[in-house]
Structure to design on (424 residues):
C-alpha cells in the first residue's frame, strides 16, 4: 500500500475514523435536546425533515456538551480513547480529573471539538457512501436513473454516464480524506487540550524523584547489609574450617554467628524485595525486619564480626548506647556506616590485623573512625568496582555530614562526621 493509501485507509486512519464516529454517536443526545428547543421555534416543523433545522439543533447542543464535560470522568475517559484510537502516546495525556480552571476549560474545548467534528464526519459517513455507490453503479442499472427526478435527462448524455462512476469514487476518496485530515488534527491537538499541565508535570517529576530516591536508599541498604553479611560469613567459615580439629568451641561460635548473620540478612532482604516487588517504594521497607540502629544493634554487629576472627578494638561513647541521645536517622545511618567500615576491613585488611573503631560525640557531631593497617596482600578488584565508600559518603551527605577515607601513614582510615542537631 502506498503512503497515500496508508494515510487514507491504513489501520491508524481507520481507528481515528472510528474515534470520530464515536464522537458523532456521543453528540446525538445533545442534538435531540437541541431539537426539542428548535422544533417549537420553527413552528412545530419536523426537525429531522430539514437539514437546516438539524444543523441548528446540532449547534444548540454543543454548548450543552461543553457543560457536561465538566464531570470528573470526562478527561480520563477521553484520554483513554485518544490513546487507544488516535495513536497518541500515553505519556502525553493526563488521566486524572480536571481540577483547575485551565484544565476544565481545555477539557470542555476538547469534548466540544470531538463531538462537533465527530458529528460532521459521522453524518458524512452515513450520507455520502450510499449516494457515491449509486453514482458508481448508475450506468449499469438503468432503473436507478428512472427513479430520480431530473436524472433521466441528465444521464441521457453519454459523457454523464461515463463520469458518474468517477464522481462516485471521488466522493468516497474525498470522504476518506476528510476523515483522515480531521482525525490527524484531533490527534495533534489532543496533547494540548488533554495533556498534563505544567503543575501536573512538576508533580509527576517530584513523585518520580522521590520514588527514585527511596529506591536508591533501598539499594544502599541491600548493598551494605548483604555485602557485610557475605564478607563476615566468608571469614567465619574460613576460620572455622582451619580450627575445626583444634578448637571446637570457636567453631561452634563461628557457626552460630553464621546462622545469626544469614537469618538477619535474609529477613532484611525479604523485606526490601517485598517492597520493590509490590511497587510501593514509599512504604516501610523494614516492616518485617526493622532497620538496625547504632544504639540497639552495635554490640551484635561487633560480636558477629569478631566471631569471624577479625580483631576489633572498639571505643564507644556511653551516649551512643542511649537511644534517646541520637536522632533515629543518625542512629540508622551510623549503623550502616560502621557496618560498611568493618566490611571493608574484612575484605581488605585480612584476619591478622586489629581494626580500631571509635564512636564518640564531640561538638554536636557523631564521629565515627575506623582504622586498620593495610593488608599484606592487595585484593583483586571486583568486576564493576565497589560502592561501599560512595554509599558511606552518600549517607553522610544525606544527613548534612561528611566522610573522608584514605591512607594515613601506615593505616587506612575512615572518618565520618554526622551532625546531631537539625537532622530530620
Amino acid at each position: 500500500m502506498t503512503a497515500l493509501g496508508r494515510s487514507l485507509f491504513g489501520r491508524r486512519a481507520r481507528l481515528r475514523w472510528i474515534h470520530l464516529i464515536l464522537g458523532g454517536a456521543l453528540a446525538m443526545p445533545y442534538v435531540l435536546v437541541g431539537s426539542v428547543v428548535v422544533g417549537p421555534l420553527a413552528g412545530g416543523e419536523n426537525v429531522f425533515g430539514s437539514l437546516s433545522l438539524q444543523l441548528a439543533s446540532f449547534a444548540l447542543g454543543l454548548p450543552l456538551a461543553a457543560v457536561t464535560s465538566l464531570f470528573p470522568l470526562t478527561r480520563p475517559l477521553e484520554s483513554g480513547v485518544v490513546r487507544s484510537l488516535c495513536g497518541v502516546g500515553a505519556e502525553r495525556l493526563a488521566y486524572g480529573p480536571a481540577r483547575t480552571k485551565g484544565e476544565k476549560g481545555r477539557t470542555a474545548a476538547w469534548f466540544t471539538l470531538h463531538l462537533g467534528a465527530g458529528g460532521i464526519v459521522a453524518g458524512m459517513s452515513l450520507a455520502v457512501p450510499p449516494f457515491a455507490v449509486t453514482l458508481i453503479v448508475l450506468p449499469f442499472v438503468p432503473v436507478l436513473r428512472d427513479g430520480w427526478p431530473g436524472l433521466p435527462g441528465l444521464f441521457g448524455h453519454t459523457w454523464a454516464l461515463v463520469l458518474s462512476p468517477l464522481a462516485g469514487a471521488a466522493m468516497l476518496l474525498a470522504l476518506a480524506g476528510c476523515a483522515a485530515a480531521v482525525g490527524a488534527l484531533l490527534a495533534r491537538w489532543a496533547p494540548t487540550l488533554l495533556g498534563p499541565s505544567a503543575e501536573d508535570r512538576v508533580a509527576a517529576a517530584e513523585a518520580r524523584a522521590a520514588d527514585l530516591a527511596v529506591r536508591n536508599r533501598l539499594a544502599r541498604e541491600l548493598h551494605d547489609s548483604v555485602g557485610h553479611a557475605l564478607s563476615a560469613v566468608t571469614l567465619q567459615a574460613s576460620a572455622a574450617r582451619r580450627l575445626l580439629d583444634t578448637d571446637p568451641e570457636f567453631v561452634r561460635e563461628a557457626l552460630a554467628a553464621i546462622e545469626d548473620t544469614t537469618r538477619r540478612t535474609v529477613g532484611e532482604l525479604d523485606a526490601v524485595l517485598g517492597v520493590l516487588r509490590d511497587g510501593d517504594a514509599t512504604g516501610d521497607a523494614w516492616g518485617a525486619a526493622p532497620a538496625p540502629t547504632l544504639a540497639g544493634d552495635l554490640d551484635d554487629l561487633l560480636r558477629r564480626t569478631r566471631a569471624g576472627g577479625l580483631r576489633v578494638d572498639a571505643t564507644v561513647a556511653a551516649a551512643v548506647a542511649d537511644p534517646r541521645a541520637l536522632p533515629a536517622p543518625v542512629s540508622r545511618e551510623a549503623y550502616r556506616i560502621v557496618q560498611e567500615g568493618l566490611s571493608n576491613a574484612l575484605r581488605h585488611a585480612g584476619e591478622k590485623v586489629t581494626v580500631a573503631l571509635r564512636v564518640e560525640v564531640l561538638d554536636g557531631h557523631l564521629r565515627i573512625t575506623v582504622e586498620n593497617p593495610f593488608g599484606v596482600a592487595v585484593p583483586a578488584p571486583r568486576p564493576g568496582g565497589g560502592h561501599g565508600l560512595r554509599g558511606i559518603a552518600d549517607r553522610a551527605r544525606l544527613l548534612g555530614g561528611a566522610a573522608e577515607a584514605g591512607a594515613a601513614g601506615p593505616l587506612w582510615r575512615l572518618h565520618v562526621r554526622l551532625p546531631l542537631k537539625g537532622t530530620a
Summary: The two ends are 64 Å apart (CA to CA). The first strand starts at residue 311 and ends at 316. Residues 281-289, 376-386 have pLDDT under 50 and may be disordered. Residues 198-242 form the longest helix (45 residues).
